[in-house]
Amino acid sequence: MEKSTALEGIRRIKETGEYDLRAKLHRITLSTDKDKRKRKVHTFKAVEGFLCGLWLDENYRPEDRGNHYGKKFIRQRDDSQINVFTAPLSGYYPLMMIEVHPREDIPLETHKTFLFELGEALPGLKASSVEYPIDVNCSRDADPLDVDNYYARDTDSLFWIFRHSLLIPYQRTTKFYADEDCKEKFAKTGKRANFSIQWGSHKVYERGQDKNRKEDGWDYDDVDRVRLEHTADWNEIRKHGIITLEDLIREPKFHEINKDIWNFKRFKQTKRSKKKLPQEWEDYSEMDDNRNDKDEGYVGSFQALYNALGKPRAYAEPVPELIPLRESIIKAMNVFDNKWGTLPL
């Protein structure tokens, strides 16, 4: 019942009736080249000249970013925010790191054009990491005062299904953020923390539009989607041939890099299993023996229990009701790649 309720809450594309899923590029992290020959090109003066209006972030604390860089500069544009990190605190780091945070509502053409212009101003920038998010947009057509039905049409039903069914390849750790009790506590006020769960470099979390974001996230009434997000680091994108910003602009390879990640699984009952595997309708959190004395690990996800049981791959099977959603996720990746490739510069 919960699955059908969650799936009904996903917004549909009017023309086709398909699930409304949108793939995009989010934070892109770039670095200057360590090669001494490139240092004449990759200078702070060149970055400042291209961005026109960097200001020093006086509130920046190096320890919040791993003590890698001593200074942070910001340029707030209409289409994006650019963060520039300088003064490396270790001789092993590049002279500068540049983060590009595009606004949620900008056209894909605008994003690609800016990246192209950045690449022309600073040729040969290295691609360090890329965030590949997919937004599953949800309906907002229920009465917010009707608590029973409101949750049936909102993001939290979908979030719990993702939490209960997703299996991310090769991930060992699971972190869940937000107090479960606040779901009922703040149901009528429209105020609560936004739920998120993280498996290594993969996250699932509730969010709304950038313009509605508060310091601690989004008010409940402003949450309109669940985001699946994979951050591909330098090693991963390099394996797929993305070494420089120019490589990324030419072909982001959304589908190639992400196609095997978002899988919906349940435990398959078989006579050959040495363990009594939990049924799909059971609360996995009650069985999660990954917990320590601080109750960490109490996450109730398929991933956590799967790992705790010793990763019984032979006893995990796809969730039939979620196969169409999985197919829509793959389609959204291909739609992005195809559109990006046709955009002019």
Polypeptide structure, described:
By secondary structure, the protein is of the alpha+beta class. It has 2 domains: 2-28 and 131-342, no CATH class; 33-124, no CATH class. 27% of the residues lie in helices and 23% in strands. It has 11 helices and 14 strands. The protein has helices at 2-8, 44-51, 108-121, 147-152, 155-165, 182-185, 234-239, 245-250, 254-258, 302-308, 323-342; strands at residues 21-23, 28-31, 55-56, 69-76, 80-88, 97-102, 126-137, 166-167, 175-177, 196-199, 202-208, 223-232, 263-267, 316-318. The strands form 2 sheets. Strands 1, 2, 3, 4, 5, 6, 7, 9, 10, 11 and 12 form an 11-stranded antiparallel β-sheet that branches. It has a 3-stranded antiparallel β-sheet with strand order 8-13-14. A hairpin with an 8-residue loop joins strand 5 and strand 6 (97-102). Helix 1 (2-8) crosses helix 5. The longest helix has 20 residues, at 323-342. The N and C termini lie far apart (48 Å). Residues 142-153 and 178-192 have low confidence and may be disordered.
Q: How many domains make up the 3D coordinates?
A: 2
Figure out the total of helices. Answer: 11
Q: Cα-atom Rg, whole angstroms?
A: 22 Å
Distance between the termini: 48 Å
What about the largest sheet?
Answer: 11 strands, antiparallel
Catalogue the unreliable spans. 142-153, 178-192
Strand content: 15-25%
Using the alpha-carbon principal axes, give the shape.
globular
Question: Helices and strands, in N-to-C order?
Answer: HEEHEEEEHEHHEEHEEEHHHEHEH
Mean pLDDT rating: 82
